[in-house]
Amino acid sequence: MVAPHVVSIRSEYDILAARIAARDVARRIGFNAVDQARIAIATTELAQTLLSFPGEGCIIINQVYQGPYLGIELVVEASPGYLEDDVTPVEQRLSQRASTVGPNDSRRLMDAVQVDTVDEAGGRVTVFKWLTHPTESVSA
After folding, report:
1. C-alpha separations of 114 from 76, 124, 134 in Å
2. Which residues 6+ apart lie within 8 Å of 51 measured at CB?
3. Which of 23, 58, 71, 85 has its CA 20 to 30 A from that of 33?
């Protein structure tokens, strides 16, 4: 089991730290180099989104199991400042962010997106990338 990593996003250096941590967790779980790169890009996009809005936030990088699947989850936790414009839902704000990486890359590069909490306490968005559990036999 890989221990969770929590990276507070306050500067460009924190974006790099989150990217490195996510790629390292993905490598230790067993993702191939292409999927490691996808996870790193998605992490960068999510961290850049956090940095571009007021308030504080962090990314939590976890190894997860769901049924027969092993994977990685990136949990984006944002303070209320992240949700100042209550007209625009947090998931939409994530997808609208303009950057050098395409605005929907975190959604396109990962397998699932889940909005867990959006209220006065802040927001939480979780994205997942799945890898077949190593003990599961894969048939052709």
Report:
1. 10, 9, 25
2. 9, 10, 11, 12, 14, 15
3. 58
- At CA 46, angle to CA 21 and CA 29, rounded to 5? 35
DSSP state of 1: -
Query: Of the ranges 6-10, 61-65, 71-75, 100-104, which one carries the lowest mean pLDDT score?
Result: 100-104
| pTM of the entire predicted model | 0.77
How far, in Å, are 62, 74, 110 from residue 37 at the CA level?
17, 14, 11
Q: Which domains does the chain possess?
A: 5-132 (3.30.565.10)
Q: What's the token pair of residue 125?
A: 């968005």
Which residues have CB under 8 Å from 65's CB, separation 6+? Answer: 71, 133
Helices 12-29 & 33-52, crossing angle to 10 degrees?
Answer: 150
Distance of alpha carbon 5 from alpha carbon 100, whole angstroms: 25
**CB atoms near residue 65 (< 10 Å):** 10
Q: What is the pLDDT of residues 89-104, one digit of tens each?
A: 555 555 454 333 333 5
